[in-house]
Amino acid sequence: MTSSTTRPGSGRDRVVLIVAFAVYLVLLTWVVLWKLEMPWIGDAAGLARPLKLVPFVPSGDAGASSPAEMVINLALFVPFGLFVGALAPGWSWWKAGVVALGASLLLEMAQHVISTGSFDTTDLIVNTVGALVGWVIFLAVHRRAGDRTPMVMTRICAIACALALAAVVAFVLSPLDYGPQRDVVVERSAQR
């Protein structure tokens, strides 16, 4: 694979990729932790709450993740894999997967600790698969574009970042309100 530093203008391409990735990570964090609402910390922060450790099925007081939620999580992490591929083109699929899993784990732990969501292993799996889908898309672009891959990926990532920013601005300015739960506290029903 041709190193992006050997091509004219590739230093600029790398800077654009890094800036776009940083913007994407900020937006991803905002979406995952606060669902595009003003940042807040829930009243249950710091309190012991159950973790959903069994993926894809209801467990304890937690229901199974809805198919729509899983598709959204998958789609949110596809750009992660695109960026990883563009910034570290020599990585294998498992390195890209480990980095995606680590990022997902950090987000899951953060939303659990600050009580804006709950820890769910389904999300870890689906997010990682989404990133790997993005990484596979990067590989397909590389096979097709060859030496033009850095320039093509810079354009793809910059356009995707601009579209994501436009969508966020439109959502924030719209009358829509996702209305996420403010605290994740499990209410226990009385013994029967």
SSE blueprint and pairings:
Elements: H1 10-34, H2 67-87, H3 93-113, H4 121-145, H5 149-173
Helix pairs in contact: 1-2, 1-3, 1-5, 2-4, 2-5, 3-4
InterPro entries: Teicoplanin_resist-assoc, VanZ-like
Protein name: VanZ family protein
Pfam family, one: VanZ
**Main β-sheet, in a few words?**
none
Query: What percent of residues are in strands?
Result: under 5%
User: What does the radius of gyration come to?
Assistant: 19 Å
Please mark out the parts with pLDDT under 50 across 5 or more consecutive residues, or reply none.
Answer: 1-9
Query: How many alpha or pi helices?
Result: 5
Number of strands: 0
Shape: globular
End-to-end separation: 65 Å
Give the integer mean of the pLDDT values. 86
Helix content: 55-70%
Written account of the structure:
- The model is unreliable at 1-9 (pLDDT under 50).
- This protein has one domain.
- Helix 1 packs antiparallel against helix 2 (67-87), helix 1 packs parallel to helix 5 (149-173) and helix 3 packs antiparallel against helix 4.
- It is mainly α and 192 residues long.
- The longest helix has 25 residues, at 10-34.
- It is built from 5 helices and no strands.
Question: Can I get a quick summary?
Answer:
This protein is mainly alpha-helical. It contains 5 helices and no strands. InterPro entries: Teicoplanin_resist-assoc, VanZ-like.
